[in-house]
Amino acid sequence: EVQLVESGGGLAQPGGSLGLSCAASGFTFSGYWMSWVRQAPGKGLEWVANIKQDGSEKYYVDSVKGRFTISRDNANNSLYLQMNSLRAEDTAVYYCARSGGATRSFGFWGQGTLVTVSS
Amino acid sequence: QSVLTQPPSVSAAPGQKVTISCSGSSSNIGNNYVSWYQQLPGTAPKLLIYDNNRRPSGIPDRFSGSKSGTSATLGITGLQTGDEADYYCGTWDSSLSGYVFGTGTKVTVL
């Protein structure tokens, strides 16, 4: 059974940093593109970033470029999102998701982890 | 501000049919595969349709997808109370080099 379990969410101050993790199991992690998708309270879905199987390609939504870094550790079946220079508008539930390719659909999602940016 | 536009809400009685539109452009829907996601209250999104019109294993054939030009449509037949949820379209945008989601549509079963 495919499982994606996010962790690392919590409260951060504006301008601060936070790191998210996603533990994957039940599939060959190194065979898939992975993404982070977020959802602000009461709002719609927003794709944040994705990363190729070997980490050689990464894409980001404009609003996080230069502040967020996506990475992965295939040996430990883990996906990461390092978030720096956090802003109030980064407050959201962050989901880890698996896709069949850079441009393809998200077939499996984690349960999400809440990030709150507030002083 | 999403580049994919959906109606804010649609509704119908149990057993009836609803359709949800998703309007985009040549840089997204026009040249890339469209997917549809269902998000039940308080839960993570779930993939309903991928590659414009294909259903993942376990998704009933009451759900269907289609694409024409720069628009896509999700259809739900035999509406059930359990279908009350938010629905999102999504696709890659070649100009933005990023994945984009629609604005979301709330389905209400009357």
Mean pLDDT of chain A: 96
Number of strands of chain B: 9
Give the CA-CA distance, first to last residue of chain A: 40 Å
Measured by DSSP, the beta-strand proportion of chain B falls in over 45%
Task: Describe the protein's architecture and organization.
In chain A, strand 4 (33-39) and strand 5 form a beta hairpin. Chain A has strands spanning 3-7, 10-12, 18-25, 33-39, 45-51, 58-60, 68-73, 78-83, 92-99, 106-109, 113-117. With 119 residues, chain A is mainly beta. Chain B is mainly β and 110 residues long. Chain B is globular and about 40 Å long. In chain B, the strands form two sheets. In chain B, strands 1, 3, 4, 7, 8 and 9 form a six-stranded mixed β-sheet that branches. At the A-B interface, strand 5 and strand 10 of A face strand 3, strand 7 and strand 8 of B.
Which labels suit this protein?
heterodimer, A: 119 residues, mainly beta, seven-stranded mixed beta sheet, 0% helix, globular, B: 110 residues, six-stranded mixed beta sheet, three-stranded antiparallel beta sheet, 9 strands, 45% strand
